[in-house]
Amino acid sequence: MKSFEKTLEVRWSDCDPNRHVTHSKYYDYGAHCRVSFFIESGFNSEKMAELQIGPILFKEECTFIKELKIQDTVRVNILKGEISEDGGRWTVHHEIFNQNGDKCAHITAKGAWMNLELRKLTLPPAELTAAFQSLPSGEYYEYKSKKLG
């Protein structure tokens, strides 16, 4: 698979009293992109239920770079980070851009696969690992502060 991204409109309900997107919505945008990637890779909720597997997160971290506001359109991608050889544990990155192409946020999510019946970590099917491996590579984002004034 080549690059994968979703385009979303910022909704009124995504915004806080400061009139910009609330911090938790950025995480929702990343999750929406991840789940859409699973679906388009052939692993919708019915398939995952059949396989008795589901993704879990150990850590999710967002660096907020530029504010998003109502009426903005956002593009969210998914990029490959570290993926264990067996595909059991993974790291992905999401970049969130506004309609002008400005990078507004960077999310790093670390997770694994859980057997939903046993409630223990498990390995995904080879096709799902291959889908992850086919993503373009991403990297961790390091925030560089600018001088104020």
Automatic annotation (TrEMBL):
It comes from Lacihabitans lacunae. It is an enzyme of class 3 (hydrolase). This is Acyl-CoA thioesterase. Signal peptide: none annotated. Keywords: Hydrolase. The keyword Hydrolase applies. InterPro entries: 4-hydroxybenzoyl-CoA_TE, HotDog_dom_sf. SUPFAM superfamilies: Thioesterase/thiol ester dehydrase-isomerase. The lineage of its organism: Bacteria, Pseudomonadati, Bacteroidota, Cytophagia, Cytophagales. Its EC number is 3.1.2.-. GO terms for molecular function: hydrolase activity.
